[in-house]
Amino acid sequence: MKNISFLLVFCFVLFQTAAQELALVVDDGKVAYIDTSGKQIIKTDFKKAASFSNGLAAAQEGKKWGFIDSSGKWAIEPQYDKVKAFNSGLALVSKDDQWSYIKTSGETLAIDAPDKYFDFNDGVALYRKGEKIGLLGTDGKLILEPTYKTIKNFWDGHAKISNGDLWGLINTKGEVVIPAEYEEVGTYNKNGIWGRKGNDYGVFINWKFTPVPGATRIWDFNDTSDLTYAQKGEKIGFINNQGKWVIDASFDKARAFSNGLAPVMKDKKWGYIDGKGTQIVGFQYKDAETFSSDGLAPVKEKLWGFIDSTGKLVIPMEYDISVGFSFFQKNAEKGFINGLARVKTKKGWGYIDKTGKLLGDKWYKNAELFVNVK
Q1: What is the pLDDT of residues 49-91, one digit of tens each?
Q2: Strands 279-285 and 287-288
Q3: What are the pLDDT digits (tens) for 282-308?
């Protein structure tokens, strides 16, 4: 029984540690890190620092940069002139005008120096030699010899590639999944990919291009729906990942489906429709954004507030925040994330819960998104 109790306590502590999320805030000119209860977990004397990534956060002491751990202690002593965030276990650092990759241990990754350094992402980094770009692995070895004129950033294990005017798609192994035969290729998403061949816009079904009748533009699919918005003539509607129109093109603007609803605009006013095109929330807002998984969406008249899926205003419109600047990262949830939203007023930056209560009753000069520190 004693062993079982110990195991339960150990698992609970392990879960709590693994799930810890911290956000960088600037208070009285100094950087600190708070948890999702608003408690200050790390207090520092740094004037410049960054959010955690791969368990470490960049921080500047004097004129040099290093990395601290989740206890606030130096994991990598300040010795660099410039640093970037860790990704895939590696970070770019610069000392004496020389860039290199370091591991979270501080050890330098041994590589044949490229002509230009790129951040790691999805376990690979772009590798330029001369006019061509290949792929570098986290072991310092080339995954793909410099082959392409252009490789865009990886998203969900795939990146756009080009050797001229036509585009295709490769995976992190350097394998071609869509040949560079298209005028445009959308960002990869598990729910769908669009492309353009000649004047035809379409989607890829089992990696095969299928034109969408009448489409003159298609936007990227996202993680929350197998529908995306597309243009036909001067209006916007929605297609599915099989290339079928499911909601007629009758809107002036649109954004993605999330939680079964999508913001759409008619006559300069935004409202929300469901997956059948039925109006759920009337056209009444100056601007509107997608619903988060927490069931709330940012809407704007003069200022921003939040509505629920019935259209009820649950958090008053009193935030002078620009949604495009504050809520977004590519493919990230907007507004509320795990019960908290980062907002701004004239008092500063802060976090509110789904009732509109200010976390810790505290406003900050700056506040970043919460991230898992492990």
Answers
A1: 999 999 999 999 999 999 999 999 999 999 999 999 999 999 9
A2: unpaired
A3: 999 999 999 999 999 999 999 999 999
